[in-house]
Amino acid sequence: MTATKKGSRCAWAESDALLREYHDTEWGVPKHDSRELWELLMLEGFQAGLSWITVLRKRDAFRKAFKGFDPAKVARFKEADIARLLQNPGIIRSRAKIQATINAARIYLKMQKSGQDFAFFLWGIVGGEPILNEGPVPAQTPLAVEMSKQLKKLGFKFVGPVIVYAFMQAAGMVNDHSPACFRR
Questions:
Q1: Residue from 12, 21, 22, 36 carrying the catalytic annotation
Q2: Catalytic site residue 44?
């Protein structure tokens, strides 16, 4: 998909072909699959302190390194797996972020075992429907703060309000496409 005569795309996506493709096909599209949402949240956590394009360029390597972001497989990772991941130049090699992802897989499975669907949990915080942002794009919102608090209460790491708001945008929980964007 490319920008049409109806409008242009969001300015942040214009500088790089990979960003354009991501914007045009994924960013802001409502995602309701629990595993897909978990993967996206983990990748957003790896972005902390970096740019999204860095994570996007490494996404395939992340998927391979983290066994397709299958929480059941990631939850079984041990110290040897952490050591292996820390040697993988294809991913962001942060021990804290790797350990947070393994821990998050265990939390995800615990939620699942107790009958709590991850997607339902997340979408419930935003009222079940995408929110159309009419104003300037904020770094965080009260809903992002609330989602961050609830995720932290469960034990998730690297889920501060700014990371969570970026996740909400990417997952389509918030529509922050610019007013002139053909995806709005």
A1: 22
A2: yes
Residue 87 lies in a domain: yes
Asked if residue 2 belongs to a domain, the reply is no
To the query of whether residue 52 is one of the catalytic residues in this protein, the response is yes
Scan for tokens 């978990």, then name that residue.
38
- SS3 assignment, position 174: strand
Q: With respect to residue 181, please indicate whether it lies within any of the assigned structural domains.
A: no
Full pLDDT tens readout for the chain, 184 residues: 444 435 699 999 999 999 999 999 999 999 999 999 999 999 999 999 999 999 999 999 999 999 999 999 999 999 999 999 999 999 999 999 999 999 999 999 999 999 999 999 999 999 999 999 888 898 999 999 999 999 999 999 999 999 999 999 999 999 999 998 999 8
> Domain containing 107: what range?
11-175
Q: Let me know if residue 1 belongs to a domain.
A: no
Q: Is 22 a catalytic residue?
A: yes
What interhelical angle do 142-154 and 161-170 show, nearest 10? Answer: 110
